[in-house]
Design brief:
Helix content is about 85%, strand content about 0%. It is an all-alpha fold. It is rod-shaped, with a radius of gyration of 60 Å.
């Protein structure tokens, strides 16, 4: 036991010294008792010291463990709080994103509306510009024609009055036969053709593009427009009523209707869409 105690094996030394003490008590060996009594306190003191040391170590470990637990608890609380904040922040971010998306959708919708309105405004402006161009061209055309007709009528009236004064009935009869109404009407229509082609230089090609290839119109030499093209030229100018077209061209209303139906039957388009496509596809000069 003493050897083990010196080596530091206090636990095993304690076992042996207690055994030796028990044997000494049993056999009444006084010398052994004295020997054991000298060693036993030292071993027990050492055991007590070890227990105290171990207890102090355990106490420190408990304190450290408690501190660690407090730190872990604090970290857990901080983490929980941060997660709650993060969750709220994500929720707020999601709401803000959704709100922004709604606003963006509204902006896109407004932009599309503005774009659509701008396109409609441009279309209306183009129509107004076209209408003004047509108006200016045909106002000039009709003033010229009216002036020409007025001069001829004035000349005719002057001749009649002069010959009436001289009672020259033969001359009056001659003057009434010289003025050829059919010739004047033809001349007026040819002037209309010239004015229209000046406004719509590609009208014939654009009009034929609305017809089937085998049904396209071919004009005679030196012919600007024929009967059918004149009808749709007037429609292109905005004159849509058969009665007015018939009055301008000198045809019957039934003839106008028949010519229009004939042309629409030659088109690959639906009959009800033909006039609208005519307006869209035939362009005024720029």
């Amino acid at each position: 036991a003493e050897f083990l105690f010196k080596k530091g094996d206090v636990k095993l030394a304690s076992v042996f010294i207690k055994k030796a003490n028990a044997d000494a008590e049993a056999y009444g060996a006084q010398q052994r008792k004295i020997r054991v009594g000298a060693i036993l306190p030292n071993i027990e003191e050492q055991i007590i010291n070890q227990v105290e040391t171990q207890r102090a170590r355990l106490s420190k470990q408990n304190i450290m463990l408690s501190i660690l637990l407090v730190v872990l608890l604090a970290l857990a609380i901080i983490t929980y709080v941060q997660l709650r904040r993060l969750k709220r922040a994500r929720k707020a971010l999601l709401l803000a994103h959704n709100d922004l998306q709604v606003k963006n959708d509204r902006i896109v919708e407004v932009n599309e509306t503005v774009h659509s309105q701008n396109e409609e405004l441009n279309r209306v402006n183009d129509l107004l510009l076209e209408a003004n161009t047509i108006k200016e061209e045909y106002i000039g055309f009709f003033f010229t024609q009216d002036a020409d007709i007025f001069e001829k009528f004035k000349e005719f009236k002057t001749g009649i009055e002069r010959n009436l004064k001289s009672n020259n009935l033969e001359r009056i009869k001659y003057l009434t036969t010289v003025y050829d109404l059919k010739k004047e009407k033809k001349k007026l229509l040819e002037s209309f053709d010239e004015a229209f082609i000046k406004l719509f230089p590609n009208f014939i090609a654009e009009f034929n593009a609305l017809l089937k290839p085998e049904e396209q119109i071919k004009l005679k030499k030196d012919q600007l427009l024929n009967k059918e093209l004149r009808i749709f030229a007037l429609i292109r100018l905005g004159i849509k009523h058969n009665e007015i077209i018939a009055q301008i061209l000198g045809y019957s209303v039934n003839s106008i209707y028949a010519y229009k139906t004939k042309i629409r039957n030659k088109s690959f388009l639906d009959k009800k869409d033909f006039d609208q496509m005519l307006l869209e596809k035939t362009r005024i000069k720029q």
